[in-house]
Specification:
Elements: E1 8-13, E2 16-19, E3 27-28, E4 32-36, E5 47-48, E6 71-77, E7 80-86, E8 89-92, E9 95-106, E10 117-118, H1 120-123, E11 136-139, E12 144-146, E13 151-152, E14 157-158, E15 164-171, E16 178-183, E17 187-195, H2 202-208, E18 211-214, E19 221-222, E20 224-228, E21 234-238, E22 243-248, H3 249-252, H4 264-275, E23 281-288, H5 295-316, E24 322-328, H6 341-347, E25 349-356, H7 370-376
Parallel strand pairs: 8-17, 23-24
Antiparallel strand pairs: 1-2, 1-20, 3-5, 4-18, 6-7, 7-9, 8-9, 9-15, 10-14, 11-12, 11-16, 12-19, 13-18, 16-17, 20-21, 21-22, 22-25, 23-25
Helix pairs in contact: 4-5
Length: 391
């Protein structure tokens, strides 16, 4: 994760995000039917990352691997240091098995060394399965993410006396020679080779004998991007259909005021620049408040704040290509519950939503060339250069 004055970025799908690629916090909680598959094709998996975990790749490149070999990275997560090797993936009939071999270099601080380190702390947080069901396949060119095809329960405990374990992530086969494998709190393992000879290891065969049906589909789902300024002034969510820019009212306005502050232009100029990357479309600007004061007051304040933002955007950039509507929602649509000062601050905001008439041919929503993105094979996965401290 890049911690600079510019921004931090996440790739989103459903409820999970990849903060500052390649770190993952997978939280696609899925309900299990509790039915053993006995090796038959199931319809999904479940997984979530540990909320308190973080990961960092060691070395200049972060990962290594070659044709026909797995990709290896040393990571630190929940106080433990792990050597993780992903792949090669093997396609066998209706499943693609991705092995994840893990070696414990240093036990985690979250549990005593006598009891070992459980990978389920970071690779699966649903308490339903113990395997590597939080792993995902990421296709930046197609802009999609694929969930595990089956859920397998495997031992995840690493100890000083038994420092090695191999888990298996089970996916629907893909038509590719290499894949990008996103491992919770461990990073993005790019270029993992795919072998189609169907020759599974004994461990992989055993994993396929102990699988469970779930309620999710293994089909790829759309990859979204989320960019947030570190100071909390704004964030942007980009989906296949719309762009939503959320501006913090505490940055734009003084308390209980609809007059733009002296600092507002910095944030509004960035919003105007983002809108200018599209040739046109429908723009809605909506003001929101917290639950302090009465409904009528908050409704009026939110309307006036939204109008102030709209007026200033029109001065900072040409809005002639956009159909603009302005409204206020008062306290009726909180972003989070109004149960703390921090949450009320998040609810005081102005949201700008753009539905483009067509995709920009020259720039992506982050201001980079789409042709360059395609050539890099990373799509929206690149981070802006940090101006402040990084970690």
């Amino acid at each position: 994760m890049v911690l600079g004055r510019v921004s931090r970025r996440a790739l989103l799908v459903g409820g999970w995000s990849v903060l500052g690629v390649p770190v993952l916090a997978a939280c696609l909680g899925r309900e299990s039917k509790g039915k053993k598959g006995g090796g038959s094709a199931a319809s999904g998996g479940a997984g979530s990352g540990s909320a308190g975990a973080s990961a960092s790749a060691s070395g200049s490149a972060g990962a290594s691997g070659g044709s026909g070999q797995g990709v290896t990275r040393t990571v630190s997560t929940v106080g433990a240091t792990l050597k993780v090797t992903v792949g090669p993936a093997v396609v066998s009939n209706d499943v693609m098995v991705v092995p994840l071999a893990v070696h414990l270099d240093k036990a985690g601080s979250s549990s005593p060394s006598s009891s070992g380190f459980g990978l389920d702390l970071v690779w699966n947080g649903t308490d339903r399965y113990t395997g590597a069901d939080g792993v995902r396949l990421v296709d930046f060119d197609a802009g999609t993410v694929q969930e595990t095809f089956k859920a397998s329960s495997e031992s995840t405990l690493l100890m000083d006396k038994e420092p090695d374990v191999t888990l298996h992530a089970l996916f629907k086969p893909v038509d590719a020679s290499t894949i990008n494998v996103l491992v919770p709190e461990s990073g993005l393992f790019e270029g993992v080779p795919v072998v189609r000879d169907g020759k599974l290891s004994e461990d992989a065969k055993k994993a396929l004998e102990d699988v469970y049906d779930t309620e999710s589909t293994p089909d790829p789902v759309a990859l979204e991007t989320f960019t947030a300024s570190v100071d909390g002034a704004s964030d942007t969510r980009v989906t296949g259909k719309s762009v939503t820019i959320t501006l913090a009212s505490d940055v734009l306005f003084d308390s209980d005021s609809a007059d733009l502050s002296a600092q507002a232009d910095t944030t509004l100029k960035k919003a105007a620049d983002q809108l200018s990357t599209y040739p046109g479309g429908q723009v809605t600007i909506v003001g929101h408040t917290d639950d302090v004061a009465d409904d009528a007051h908050n409704q009026d304040l939110s309307q006036r704040r939204a109008q102030a933002v709209s007026d200033r955007l029109g001065q900072l950039a040409s809005m002639s290509a956009y159909s603009v509507s302005v409204s206020g929602k008062g306290e009726s649509e909180p972003r989070v519950p109004n149960d703390s000062d921090e949450n009320r601050q998040l609810n005081r905001r102005v949201e700008i939503t753009l539905v483009p008439t067509q995709e920009s041919s020259t720039k992506s929503p982050t201001g980079t060339s789409k042709d360059a993105d395609k050539g890099s094979g990373k799509g929206g996965g690149d981070l802006p250069k940090a101006e402040g401290p990084v970690a």
